Amino acid sequence: MRGDRLRQLRENEGISQEELAKRLKISEAQIWRIENTDAAPRGETLINIADYFGVSTDYLLGRSDHPGMLVITELNDKESRVIAAWRGGKHSEAARTILNDEKAANGA
User: Fold this and answer.
1) Helix, strand, or coil (residue 20)
2) Could you list the pLDDT tens digit for every one of the 108 residues in the chain?
3) Among residues 63, 14, 67, 7, which one has the least CA distance to residue 35?
4) Half-sphere exposure of 62 (CA within 13 A, CB side)
5) What is the rounded CA–CA span in Å between residue 49 and residue 1?
6) Which of 7, 20, 40, 66 has an alpha carbon 20 to 30 Å from 28's alpha carbon atom?
C-alpha cells in the first residue's frame, strides 16, 4: 500500500494517527507502519481504510491515480457495456458504442 496516500488522506481529514486508529479499530503503531511503508494492511483493513476515506483500494495500492470509486449501479446498461468493453481491451467496440449513441441522439 502507498503509505504516502494514507498519510495525505488522514492529514486532509485533519485527524491524528491515534484518532484514525481508533476509528478503524486498529493500533496506532499499525497506522504508523502503513504510512511509513513498513507494513501492508490485511485485506479487511485495506477495505476499511478505503471505505472510511471514500476512495478505491486501487488508489490506496497505487494502481490508480484517481481516488474516487466508480459505483456501477449508477450506470445505465449502455454505460456499463462501454466500460466493460474498454476495460477488456476492446477499445474499438467501446468507441463504436459511444459514436452510435451520439448518432442516434443527433438523429443521424
Assistant:
1) helix
2) 899 999 999 999 999 999 999 999 999 999 999 999 877 898 999 999 999 998 989 899 988 887 876 555 677 888 888 887 887 788 899 899 889 877 777 776
3) 7
4) 7
5) 11
6) 66
